[in-house]
Amino acid sequence: MKKKLLLVTLFLIQFCSFSQVEDAWVYLADKENVAQSISNPISILTQRAIDRKTNQGIAIDQKDVPVNEFYISALKNANGISVLSKSKWFNAVHVRGAQIDIEALLTNPNTSFVTSIEYASGSISTSRLNSPVNKFEFEETNVDLNYGDTENQVQMLNLHLLHSDDFTGEGVLVAVLDAGFSGVETINAFSRLRNNGDLLDGYDFVDRTTAVYDYTGNTHGTKVLSTMAAYIDNQYVGTAPDASYYVFRTEDAGSENPVEESYWVEAAERADSLGVDIINTSLGYKDYDNPSYTYTNTDLDGYTTYITRGANMAFQKGLLLVNSAGNSGASGLNAPADSPYVITVGAVDASGNYASFSSQGSAIQPTQKPNLVARGLSSFVVSSTNAIVQNNGTSFSSPILAGALACLKQALPNSSNEELIDFIQESASQFLNPDYYLGYGIPDFEQAKTLGLEYEASKRQEYKIYPNPVKDILNLQFYGTVEEAEISVFDILGKQLFTKELTINKNTIDFSEVRKGIYIVTISTKKADVKTFKLIKE
Questions:
Q1: With a cut of 70, which residues of the chain have pLDDT below it?
Q2: Angle formed by the axes of helices 394-411 and 220-229, to 10°?
Q3: Which of 91, 110, 136 is the last residue of a domain?
Q4: Cα-Cα-Cα-Cα dihedral of 504, 508, 509, 513, to 10°?
Q5: Which of 417, 436, 456 is the last residue of a domain?
Q6: CA 311, CA 315: separation in Å to the nearest integer?
Q7: Which end of the chain is more exposed for a tag (fewer CB within 10 A), N or C?
Q8: Which of 406-438 are b and which e, b meaning 16 or more Cβ less than 10 Å from the residue's Cβ?
Q9: Are 387 and 189 contacting, i.e. CB atoms less than 8 angstroms apart?
Q10: In a domain? residue 322
Q11: Distances in Å between the alpha carbon of 153 and those of 213, 250, 390, 414?
């Protein structure tokens, strides 16, 4: 009898605890239309709130976006739940109900958006054990890559920050001109590339066949491609894993003859016709089997060799060209790395120090060579047998950087080729003091992206009003095609103080006699654009 009473008592205690009314914060999975709301902040904030954030340098972010009202409605319809309050900052809702009903929110399919619950009593806290299936999860989740062996050669360029913003080369076409691509069509490292449909086509210009993978005499191209396109989960990530690739064999590894320059030009023309954005070439030409074909150092002046002239034409056609500097150290560059329109890439070690084999530039070249550097000493590559190995050479620093350039092009789709080159060079570690060893240095692709975005914003800006706060003279600087505007000044009560016509040659207003305070300024142009600013007179 005592045993039965004990069981009943335990049951009643448990029942009472689950039936007791509790207050709790229910945390939600996500919000609705976040990007759209942030890009159009007036839809979620008042102008005064926007102005305050702007004046204090506070970014408008996801926390400013309201809680999803659909989620709130679903919670209100849940059994035994009262919704008392909501918080956009915490993306949470305050609810009241029996513990058993609150707990049920974690298993109810109609409230699968609930991620965790925090009780006001502090005595209970729980979270969803199994996340709900979301068919859009991949699209909605930021890239979080485990680089494995490639971590250093990616992070050296600050490229992982572009990857985390989902700039992984998607939509960018890259052509790889090299010596042989055996294994690309079969090994696991390229299965993701193949399955995503990003291994587009190939051609063997040496053997004149579409069976580009049949040649097994050299696998240099396989390793080169791997630094950009290979993906082995938790072990290896190329610099542009989501770009699309064409592979062209232009190098006859069994001999050294100028016909290889011709193969290269033909392949570049094919790439141009296919709409390729970037060509990577980890090849170079100077010495030939027949000494009479060999180039002198003075021939490497950026305009003389056949392949270099082809590279110059390719750039004029709109292609971005990335080329290895060569592995000749102080003996200098090969062609077409001497071209002023090619991004010539030298090699450094894992610490960013010059690799002694990396070909040096000279005064013979008309522009700074090398342009940039990336890891080329003990670079991690994938062999044709799917093994991750380490190889030396600017052959690998070049595609590592070319892949990063593909990610940058995705991030800055409206930037010209010249602008993209300027951005990466300006971002580099020794931009102000280049030399013949490292060129402008190691580029910072996150900084290059920032430079590009700032430049695009400046091109869109029609005019700039400054200084603000103003003491004596207010200036209006014009940009682009805008050469005149009408400026009107109102006090805080909306009374118009004056209107003045300004032009590109007469663009100042004397504010010295205006009383201290806050004013509203409107500027209109012939395009019928009207913009309003808050101006502080000090």
A1: 1-19, 48-49, 51-53, 55-56, 58, 122-144, 458-463, 479-481, 527-529
A2: 30
A3: 136
A4: -170
A5: 456
A6: 6
A7: N
A8: bbbbbbbeebebebbbbbbbbbbbebeebebbb
A9: no
A10: yes
A11: 27, 27, 12, 27
Q: For CA atoms 166, 170, 172, 176, give the dihedral sign.
A: positive
Which residues on adjacent β-strands are paired with residue 531?
A: 523
Residues 451 and 472 occupy one common structural domain? no
Q: Residue written as tokens 């502090």?
A: 122
Query: Is residue 186 domain-shared with residue 263, that is, in the same domain?
Result: yes
Report pLDDT digits (tens) over 171-217.
999 999 999 999 999 999 999 999 999 999 899 999 999 999 999 99
Distances (CA, A) of 455 to 223, 414, 423: 36, 11, 9
Q: By C-alpha distance, which of 295, 300, 303 is closest to 364?
A: 300
pTM to 2 decimal places: 0.64
> How many domains does one find in the chain?
3
Shared domain for 507 and 421, answered yes or no, is no
Q: How far is CA 294 from CA 215, 258, 385, 394, in A?
A: 27, 9, 35, 21
Q: Answer yes or no: do 442 and 494 share one domain.
A: no
**Which amino acid type is present at position 488?**
S
Q: What is the 3-state secondary structure of 66-114?
A: CCCHHHHHHHHHCCCCEEEEEECCCCEEEEEEEHHHHHHCCCCHHHCCE
Q: Which domain holds residue 36?
A: 18-136
